[in-house]
Write a structure and sequence with these properties.
single chain; 396 residues; alpha/beta; D-Maltodextrin-Binding Protein, domain 2; nine-stranded mixed beta sheet; two-stranded antiparallel ribbon; 15 helices; 13 strands; elongated; transcription; WH-like_DNA-bd_sf; transcription regulation
């Protein structure tokens, strides 16, 4: 990729070879391997100069961003290790794609042995690649444990750059495929509870039926885990309740709509048919509380301060809508949840809101993505569906 980018910048393979400290035949061979791997020409000779093809221009943008991620990861790793000397030039011409693949496999599996199995290599080969990467960077990356290996703090910082570079190149391959007329691509969406009921299913269905070959993976989990996966490039975008202040300097939050919280029970609950209720009317009944780190949990514990009562009514803490639905059906339980999230259950008669007025209960719902992330055209189409059905959800 470095040879390819230098050739595009200078218009000369020989000049690119000189800048990358390679012989011209080696540089020519490197470009040929890259073009063979991608399957189309990236450069063409024009007036004695090498110029980018249309596909080459697409890939050059992604390749440069990938190398920038690696460089940023290196600098972060050196800073974490307290290394002040500049090693960027040495690193740029020494690190290999094989070392990066091995590193990511080790991170994902937690051991040299498991990484070797995933990559189809021998354990000594993976071990040598890992140790050679340490030598190139100039700081330890791995700590041996009885159960496998643990990353050093410097390695953790570098891995973020490596994974973001990998994600950038994956998008590059998808853009090339689309440019060649093949409708395909991927999107990994981190989904928080509220959006799972109708917004995500409708957006997924519209995308899958409208774009052939496009694959969507929906990942569920706790906010902190999903945010980390987003920042490391394993997830493309999050949808759900936004956090304030913004959770990290390298992510952007986009407001889609505001959702109201509501206090709920099962339709057979003694309070379900009553009107003009107060929060105090629910305190003799057992409560199912959302975790305090969630926006609904923060409202319940910090605004309504239900935990400060002389005897708290909270008996169960759970974030799963399935658990909430099941427990409410078992007895006279009360909870607080997103009004949008229970629309389907309300229409089916499994959950009903109580007539209790609330204040300060609106939550911002939206998308969270990496600030520097540039979606492919197909990914942008899917985001468009998420925006569309979020808007419809507020109108229903």
């Amino acid at each position: 990729m470095r040879i390819f980018l230098e050739t595009a910048r200078s218009g000369s393979v020989s000049e690119a070879a000189k800048r990358c400290h390679l012989s011209q035949p080696a540089a020519t061979q490197a470009i040929s391997r890259l073009e063979a791997d991608i399957g189309v020409p990236l450069l063409v000779r024009r007036r004695q100069r090498a110029a980018l093809t249309d596909v080459g221009a697409l890939f050059a943008m992604r390749a440069q961003k990938a190398l920038d991620h690696l460089k940023n990861g290196l600098q972060a790793a050196l800073g974490e290790a307290g290394i002040k000397s500049r090693r960027g030039t040495t690193f740029e011409f020494s690190v290999t794609a094989s070392q990066l693949r091995n590193l990511i496999a080790i991170v994902n599996t937690g051991s040299f042995t498991m990484a070797a199995q995933v990559l189809g290599l021998s354990q000594p080969t993976v071990h040598r690649a890992a140790r050679s990467l340490e030598a190139v960077v100039g700081t330890p990356f791995f700590v041996a444990l009885p159960s496998g290996v643990r990353l050093t703090p410097a390695a953790e910082r570098f891995v973020i750059g490596a994974k973001l570079a990998q994600a950038e190149l994956k998008q590059g391959y998808e853009e090339i495929s689309n440019a060649l007329g093949h409708e395909q691509g991927t999107f990994v969406l981190g989904s928080l509870p509220l959006a799972r009921t109708t917004i995500v299913p409708k957006a997924v269905h519209s995308m899958v039926t409208g774009v052939d070959g496009f694959q969507i993976r929906v990942v569920e989990g706790r906010y902190g885990e999903l945010l980390r996966s987003l920042r490391e490039g394993d997830i493309d975008c999050l949808i759900g309740a936004l956090r304030y202040p913004e959770p990290a300097e390298n992510v952007t939050q986009e407001l889609l709509f505001r959702d109201a919280l509501t206090i709920v029970t099962h339709p057979k609950h003694p309070l379900a048919s009553k009107r003009n209720l107060r929060l105090e009317d629910t305190l003799d009944f057992p409560w199912i509380a959302p975790p305090i780190e969630t926006p609904a949990g923060q409202y319940l514990f910090e605004t309504l301060r239900i935990g400060d009562r002389e005897q708290t009514p909270v008996r169960i803490v759970a974030s799963s809508l399935a658990i909430l639905r099941g427990v409410l059906a078992e007895g006279p339980y009360v909870s607080v949840v997103s009004g949008h999230q229970i629309k389907v259950d309300q229409s089916q008669g499994t959950i009903t809101p109580l007539d209790i007025p609330l204040s300060g209960h609106l939550r911002d719902i939206g998308l969270t993505y990496r600030t520097a992330w540039k979606p492919t055209a197909a990914q942008e189409t899917f985001i468009g569906f998420l925006r569309k059905f979020s808007k419809i959800a507020t109108e229903d």
